[in-house]
């Protein structure tokens, strides 16, 4: 049986409202940065991700950003994330966040730290809570987890049955 633990650094936080980018502004910024770094044949689009800020799709030659991320964050945060994904595009598949990727990211003027630590993302709709101790063990955007196969790490498989609770 799998046990679930809540991450020490939660990636969900309160909304900000000032200085936020619109979708068209993010698209224009993305095109400008892609061209500036020689990725003229790459595309940009917004996607519906709720837990990650951006993604690099090598085979499609496409960089995506979460529309939720763009809506909730300001231009510097979006720019850093675009440059992060551009670094992935420049090094090619199979590198992840390795030494080679880090060198390219540094050359682009960004740190190798993941941007999800500072980014604003939407609050999840659901909490997974232990029925025995009441601890919230996970947050989810969808109720997609089979609760019979998971339990609270603190209470164990006998007592640590989990329940879905709507996030207030």
Summarize the helices and strands and which ones pair or pack.
Elements: E1 2-4, H1 23-36, E2 43-47, E3 54-57, E4 62-66, H2 67-72, H3 75-91, H4 99-107, E5 126-130, E6 136-140, E7 150-152, H5 156-159, E8 162-166
Parallel strand pairs: 1-7, 2-4
Antiparallel strand pairs: 3-4, 5-6, 5-8
Provide a brief overview of the structure.
By secondary structure, the protein is of the alpha/beta class. The protein is built from five helices and eight strands; from the N terminus they run E-H-E-E-E-H-H-H-E-E-E-H-E.
Molecular structure report:
The chain is α/β, with parallel strands linked by helices. It is built from five helices and eight strands. The chain has helices spanning 23-36, 67-72, 75-91, 99-107, 156-159, and strands at residues 2-4, 43-47, 54-57, 62-66, 126-130, 136-140, 150-152, 162-166. A three-stranded mixed β-sheet has the order 2-4-3. It has a three-stranded antiparallel β-sheet with strand order 6-5-8, with no helix packed on it. A two-stranded parallel ribbon has the order 1-7. A hairpin with a 5-residue loop joins strand 5 (126-130) and strand 6. Helix 1 (23-36) runs parallel beside helix 3 (75-91). The longest helix is centred in the middle third of the chain and has 17 residues, at 75-91. It is elongated. The model is unreliable at 1-18 (pLDDT under 50).
Please give a handful of descriptors for the protein shown.
single chain, alpha/beta, 3-stranded mixed β-sheet, disordered N terminus
């Amino acid at each position: 049986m799998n046990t679930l633990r809540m991450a020490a650094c939660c990636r969900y936080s309160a909304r900000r409202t000032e200085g936020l980018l619109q979708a068209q502004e993010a698209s224009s910024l993305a095109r400008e940065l892609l061209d500036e770094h020689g990725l003229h044949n790459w595309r940009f689009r917004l996607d519906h991700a709720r837990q990650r800020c951006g993604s690099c799709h090598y085979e499609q030659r496409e960089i995506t950003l979460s529309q939720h991320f763009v809506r909730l964050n300001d231009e510097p945060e979006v720019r850093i994330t675009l440059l992060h994904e551009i670094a992935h595009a420049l090094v090619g598949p199979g590198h992840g966040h390795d030494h080679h990727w880090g060198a390219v990211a540094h050359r682009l003027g960004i740190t190798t730290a993941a941007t999800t630590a500072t980014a604003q993302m939407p609050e999840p709709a659901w909490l997974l809570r232990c029925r025995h101790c009441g601890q919230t063990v996970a947050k989810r955007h969808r109720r997609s987890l089979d609760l019979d196969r998971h339990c609270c790490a603190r209470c164990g498989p006998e007592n640590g049955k989990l329940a879905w609770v709507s996030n207030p």
